[in-house]
User: Fold this.
Amino acid sequence: MNKIKNICICLTGLALYFSANTSMASEVITKADAKRPNILVILTDDMGYGDVGFNGAKDIFTPNLDQLAAAGTRFDSAYNAHPFCGPSRAGIMTGRYPHKFGSQFNLPTSNRSGGIGIPVNETFISEELQDAGYFTGAIGKWHLGEEAQYHPNNRGFDQFYGFLNGGHDYFPENFKAAYERQRKRGMNHTIFHYLRPLERNGVEVDETEYVTDGLSREAQGFIRQASKNKQQPFFLYLAYNAPHSPMQATKDDLEVFKHIKNEKRRIYAAMVYAVDRGVKKIVDTLKETEQLDNTLIVFFSDNGGRADYGASNFPLKGVKGSVQEGGFRTPMFFHWPQGVEAGKEYIHPISTLDLYPTFASLANAKIANTKKLDGKNLYPFLANNKSARPGEMIYALRHRKGLSQASARRDNFKAINVGKVWKLYDIEKDPGEENDLSEKYPIILREMVAEMEIWSWSNTQPLWFHIQKEGFEWREKSMPRFHETFALPKLN
Ligand code: CA
Assistant:
């Protein structure tokens, strides 16, 4: 279908070309395309807010990411739609809170996810960009469904290289041997998915490099392929699984971090560094193919880091899975020499749900009137450094163990309930969530909690649970029990 679409676009182009004065037609095409950037999303997995140089890391070196951040616009308060992997990615792809279409849990851990995935009636940004004429690629971790109808090639990506589930081992010499041993024992249906071969467009491949390096290599290959037709912009979604567990780093990268005494932190740092090395190669390839100037690079992590695996979300409180800032606020920047100012910091709150409408606008994609979106087109707000959503809320809602954690950010305030009590912080002045202002500003807290409760009324029941136990708890404890989640003490 994609090939047919591409052929149609080419034929239309040819018809235009021959129907007008040759030089004029090509000039028109060039000018129109110059306005549409290539879009390169570089996503990391479970990276801490404080684990890149441009957010203050001293012991982890990320010189290449830092250089891009300094030459672009850094986002101080960028939030994911959820504090863990699957729902966060569902938000990025659909531009909607995953709670609105039943995808608020990770897909089940089973090797085969039972034929489920992000509902196909939710249009992905990749489909919008492909329809708008972009050459599209996904590389790395998918985690949005494994059956044919949920496969990246059927969700707007011309090219896919990587793995469909939620993670992968890093060293081929180890995971290939383990996979072969288990396969020979006839364990085909129970082999842990982190050990399975990677694939290219549905066909198993023999990856021979440390997986982070393999994904960087594939990104370079995609960019070179894209450069053969500069009339067609590209969209590349590069989703590294680093620095997600299993914690495995190369000897060379570990050598760089000899100064870190804590072993977990040292391995984690080396895994982040491998991403940074890859980013340098990718930027070099963009330069070589003369595409860097018109490529919007967006870098961020899908959720916060895990301290137990060596990550640091400093100065934020909380870790992956929490609706405290450290759970879902991510390091982030935009780099685009022709379209984004260098050396800027954007302090207003944004959401990774904003990427969908932002990309669609830059690509002149025509979003269907029926498409629901929870984000904002950020682009017009970057240049004047104004908030894209004054007075509007950004939500985080995580269901767990019989209760729900909930938080809402509005301008400089954040309301949060991680137990049974709502608290309020001036998150601009107090990013560490230390000084509760709920007694000082009870009306502001009430407004925010009430607004979030109304938002929750249109959430749908989960279509799946990550593990069976979650499903039992959900049913036995009559989840989500929003009357408790949004309850506040009476005003005096
Ligand atoms: Ca993650």
Residues 263-288 form the longest helix (26 residues). The chain has a mean pLDDT of 92. The first strand starts at residue 38 and ends at 44.
